[in-house]
Structures are given as structure tokens and as C-alpha cells.
Write a structure and sequence with these properties.
137 residues, mainly alpha, 0% strand, 6 helices
Length: 137
């Protein structure tokens, strides 16, 4: 089985088509946003990897979850985010929700209707905004 690091795209926050931890975010809040981004980018790269089997992707996403919640230190991005969350007394809920979306990306290819799509968005899009709001209090 590959590692999370081996499935990375190499894409970083400055390569995105949206601002990550931009100058609009107070400097004191940029580090948590970047730690969240790096964790989510790594998970997204795993779930989108072209040649890894769904079972392998799911196993790696589970390693990420374990690192995030303190059951393991195997994935540096999970450990880094866990540390930032602890320092700020923030919950891992939003990152865990995103992991659920990435698990779905590994196994589900189509959504049947609006309700199905909105349920997916509850895990894939909404947690990002909610995390940014939590970081800002």
C-alpha cells in the first residue's frame, strides 16, 4: 500500500484557483487555515488519485482520521492540524466531515438528485467555511 505522501499531487496553497490564507485573513489566523488546507489537500489528493484502488484510498483516509484524532501519528498533516486545533481549543469536526466527503468520492460516482447532492455538500463544502468561521471566533 502507498502512503499518503506518495499519493500527493504536489499542489500547494498558491496553486489553487481560490485564495488560501490570503492577506484578508488576520496573520494570527493564517497558520490554522494553512494547517487545515494542507490536511484537506492531502486527503483530496488521496481520494482523487487516478491509479490507487478505492480500498487503498479508504485505508489511507482512515490513517488520516486516526492522525487527526490522536490515535496515530502516521500522517504529518493530521498531527499538525491536531496540534493547531488543540492550541485553539477547536474541534476536529469540520476536518472529519471533509474526510467523509472524500470517502464518498472513492466509492460514489453519481448523485441521484438535489437532496443527495446537498447531503454531499454538507460534508464537502460547508465544513470549509465553518472552519474559517470557528478560527475567527
Amino acid at each position: 500500500m502507498s502512503s499518503v505522501a506518495e499519493l500527493q499531487s504536489g499542489k500547494g496553497h498558491s496553486d489553487e484557483n481560490f485564495p488560501v490564507a490570503s492577506f484578508l485573513i488576520a496573520p494570527k489566523n493564517r497558520a490554522p487555515v494553512l494547517a487545515f488546507y494542507k490536511f484537506v489537500r492531502a486527503a483530496d489528493d488521496v481520494s482523487d488519485h487516478a491509479t490507487a484502488a478505492p480500498e487503498e484510498k479508504l485505508a489511507l483516509l482512515e490513517q488520516m482520521r486516526q492522525s487527526l484524532v490522536g490515535e496515530s501519528d502516521a500522517v504529518p498533516e493530521g498531527v499538525a492540524l491536531r496540534t493547531v486545533l488543540a492550541e485553539r481549543n477547536l474541534s476536529p469536526t469540520h476536518a472529519l466531515d471533509l474526510l467523509e466527503a472524500f470517502r464518498r468520492d472513492c466509492t460514489k460516482l453519481r448523485y441521484q438528485g438535489w437532496d443527495d447532492l446537498i447531503d454531499y455538500c454538507r460534508y464537502s463544502a460547508m465544513p470549509v467555511g465553518r472552519f474559517v468561521l470557528d478560527v475567527h471566533g
